[in-house]
Amino acid sequence: MHSLRVDLGQRSYPIHIGTGILADPALFAPILNKGPVAIVTDDNVAPLYLETLQQTLKALHKAPLVITLPAGEASKSLDNIQEITGLLLNAGYGRDCTLCALGGGVVGDIAGFAAAVYQRGVSYIQVPTTLLAMVDSSVGGKTGVNHPLGKNMIGAFYQPRAVIADTDTLDSLPDREFRSGLAEVIKYGLINDQGFFSWLEDHMDAVLARAADALVKVIGHSCKDKAEVVARDELEGGLRAILNLGHTFGHAIEAATGYGRYLHGEAVAIGMVMAADLSRRLDLIRESEQNRIYALIKGAGLPTLAPALPPADYLRFMRVDKKAESGQVRFILLRGIGSAVITGDVPPAAVLQTLQAFM
Ligand code: NAD
Ligand code: ZN
After folding, report:
1. Over its length of 359 residues, how does the chain's per-residue pLDDT go in tens digits?
2. Quick one: which ligand is closest to 188's CA?
3. ipTM more than 0.90?
4. Keywords of this protein's UniProt record, alphabetized (predicted)?
């Protein structure tokens, strides 16, 4: 097992990564409050891993309330916050309870937000079961739900008590979901970890084969990189925005294609290819670096081209992206592999050329 900490002073917490750790009561014992436990999960994950987590909690004399949501993004709604908090109230859960989010980013985001608002805040534990949730959504304390007018528009920064990432749960993850999570992994190498990027170039076969030791390395390294950025800028005052590399283009691709055509990580992969191209056009990186980035993303089985739509369609969505401040689109660009910069100062003609080059 590999353990690390997210260092946020009073709100610091551990991340444990390893095989079979979902079944280890000793890991859960120190992170549970004295009150009862509720597990929030979805109906894909429940048949696979709920029993194991229940057994672990039973060994600690907890008989958890189980709340199972339909799998999918539509479950991230305020209605379900009402539902979850209603079930907790009916069960008589007080402020000393603990929520466990067992599932992907959808479950993590909604359970975390429920924990943030239930009785003004109760403790929660992230038990991520997708690669994306292990390397991204379970770390950093962004929680929330969607509003009909916008994704993630209602939420809170609220840190978990711990993250327990059992890599065995990734065995059942569909290939496309796994590769989509890899896009965020590659992102960490690009924004602040050149050594990790090189390691990924050398070990992509083992990663794609989901070799246990490669997974622990990938998840541990990604969490460390994200934790470092979060520790320096918990509430996204500035630096944390570098985590959005590839996301300005990526969100526009998701929106312009009506969501659903691309998984988030797939759109981010294309977005990172575009961000690298734009960085090279602005002479921030060399062509050889751009080629390495392209090769790694393609080698991970991720898409590198966006659908050929009128560029104006993409540009419109880039302007409404919430990263656009005072009408100016902000880009996260690269100064090299392992070094990102945030800039609003990008010639529109260069953005257009980049869009046209990758569709
Ligand atoms: P998800 O939670 O929808 O999971 C993807 C699919 O895989 C679902 O159908 C789920 O039921 C299934 N699944 C989960 N674990 C499985 C397993 N072990 N085996 C088989 N199937 C499994 O999606 P996701 O990609 O994990 O997360 C996406 C969500 O995360 C989005 O809502 C996004 O907004 C959010 N997110 C949040 C943050 C953050 O910082 N809070 C960061 C990135 C993304
Ligand atoms: Zn993302």
Report:
1. 999 999 999 999 999 999 999 999 999 999 999 999 999 999 999 999 999 999 999 999 999 999 999 999 999 999 999 999 999 999 999 999 999 999 999 999 999 999 999 999 999 999 999 999 999 999 999 999 999 988 899 999 999 999 999 999 999 999 999 999 999 999 999 999 999 999 999 999 999 999 999 999 999 999 999 999 999 998 888 889 999 999 999 999 999 998 889 999 999 999 999 999 999 999 999 999 999 999 999 999 999 999 999 999 999 998 876 555 666 788 999 999 999 999 988 999 999 999 999 99
2. 2
3. yes
4. Lyase
Task: Enumerate residues lining ligand 1, CB below 6 A.
Answer: 42, 44-45, 48, 71-73, 76, 103-107, 109, 129-130, 132-133, 136-137, 140, 142, 152, 169, 172-173, 177
Long-range CB contacts for residues 50-59, cutoff 8 Å, separation at least 24: 50/102, 52/22, 52/23, 53/22, 53/100, 53/102, 53/127, 55/23, 56/22, 56/23, 56/24, 56/25, 56/28, 57/25, 57/28, 57/32, 57/100, 59/25
Q: Measured from the CA of 169, which atom of ligand 1 is nearest? A: 18
Predicted model pTM: 0.96
Homologous superfamily in CATH for domain 175-357: Dehydroquinate synthase-like - alpha domain (1.20.1090.10)
